[in-house]
Design a protein that fits this description.
By secondary structure, the protein is an alpha+beta fold. Helices cover about 25% and strands about 25% of the residues. β7 and β8 form a beta hairpin. The N and C termini lie far apart (about 55 Å). One of its GO terms (cellular component) is cytosol. One of its GO terms (biological process) is response to stress. This is CS domain-containing protein.
Length: about 400
């Protein structure tokens, strides 16, 4: 497939973690715009299998130590393909003179890739990213020149994972997430109903929801459907949530939303936005029985300026159990809120979920089992069939 990479749009800083399986270890962080690194790069390479390429066209690049100095990466066109255990990236070298091997620097490490060529005494960056779709094995990197293209072969850390693209982007995450989630619903929780709704809507669009009513068609095409507990509550009660709270109090609204979540727990392929604040069921630790049926993302605003501070804040929340949101599978922390950045927060949510599932690929199946057994509140340590949550006893089979 063909693609391009350029400078990311300026958005607020986001941090995301798994807060259940590894709260002491951040899965990753996402920040925009991407930073540019300057450091010594050592490429380790072996001779590739190139039977399909005539020998006169091959230029093998030996191990090269080069100093890479450049500014932000320019827009770069490329061709990408995914193999069984590796991925191939083809970068056009243009109509200029083909560089010598010693003038090419390929620096691959973890989830980062930087490729530069030296021309006329200056360094040109062909591609630079610290957001490869997944980790690679740097020592197995192979690169060579095929006529007017630089071909880079990267060995995947997880050979079973299909890469939609070389870079983790909104498009590649959306494509992969549908496969990784395997139909499991996603619940967006947090203090702000508006934030939850906007992020859930963007997430559903990314996962393939198309509202054909808006295009003049009668039916809806669904892969993942956006659902809003506030809209469902107001539709049934025939009154808005604010007046409901004024009439009956926050406890009544939270209890009603808990009933709605129970009905939604058996739904597949849904992105559910929940009520924020004290009147929301998710804020209460006792109302998570049915939320565990799906993957939960806690969207939380923070004043933290760096990943470590955001991580410490998340750990404190988990330790003091001050809110039900700490039961979530992942947390996305963001500095302030701007509706224009809802898509970026949705992208961070997908990235966090991707890392969570890749760390334990049995999670979607485990969620499905939890639903089939009746959402008994025994997540994540699912008890055998016949277990009675009221007295914590098991029935012999």
């Amino acid at each position: 497939m063909a693609g391009s990479v350029g400078a990311a749009a300026e958005v607020k800083l986001c941090f995301y973690f798994s807060i259940q399986s590894s709260i002491n270890r951040p899965i990753s962080s996402l920040s925009f715009p991407p930073f540019s690194r300057s450091r010594l790069s050592l490429g380790a390479y072996t001779k590739p299998r190139l039977a399909r390429i005539p020998s006169k066209r091959r230029q093998y690049l030996p191990s090269v130590l080069c100093k890479c100095i450049s500014t932000a990466a320019p827009n770069t066109n490329y061709e990408f393909s995914d193999g069984a255990s590796d991925v191939e990236l083809r970068l056009p070298l243009g109509n200029q003179e083909i560089p010598r091997p010693r003038d090419v620097c390929v620096d691959a490490a973890g989830t980062s890739l930087r490729v530069t060529v030296r021309r006329s005494g200056s360094v040109v960056t062909l591609i630079e990213t610290d957001q490869l779709f997944d980790r690679v094995k740097p020592s197995d990197t192979i690169w060579f020149i095929d006529e007017d293209e630089l071909v880079i072969n990267l060995k995947k850390h997880d050979p079973k994972l299909k890469w939609p693209d070389i870079i983790e982007s909104w498009e590649s995450l959306s494509s992969a997430a549908v496969q990784l989630l395997r139909g499991t619903s996603v619940f967006i929780v947090g203090d702000s109903t508006e934030v939850n709704r906007r992020v859930a809507r963007e997430l559903a669009v990314g996962l393939g929801y198309v509202d054909l009513h808006a295009l003049g068609f009668i039916h809806l095409f669904r892969r993942y459907t956006p659902l809003d507990t506030q809209e469902l509550l107001e539709s049934v009660s025939k009154q808005d949530v604010d007046s409901w709270i004024a009439d009956e109090g926050v406890d009544s609204v939270a209890e009603a939303e808990s009933s709605v979540l129970e009905s939604l727990s058996s739904h597949a392929r849904a992105v559910v936005s929940t009520l924020g604040g004290k009147h929301g069921a998710a804020a209460r630790t006792t109302n998570w029985r049915h939320l565990h049926a799906g993957f939960t993302v806690w969207v939380s605003e923070t004043e933290a300026m760096d990943q470590d501070t955001a991580k410490e804040e998340a750990i404190r929340h988990v330790q003091d159990r001050s809110t039900g949101y700490t039961n979530a599978d992942v947390v996305v922390k963001l500095q302030g809120w701007d509706p224009d950045h809802a898509k970026s927060v949705a992208q961070a949510s997908l990235s966090a979920l991707k890392r969570l599932i890749l760390a334990d690929k049995e999670l979607p199946g485990k969620k499905s089992l939890y639903i089939r057994l009746g959402c008994r509140g025994d997540w994540p340590d699912i008890k055998p069939p016949g277990w009675d949550p009221s007295n914590n006893t098991e029935v012999a089979l």
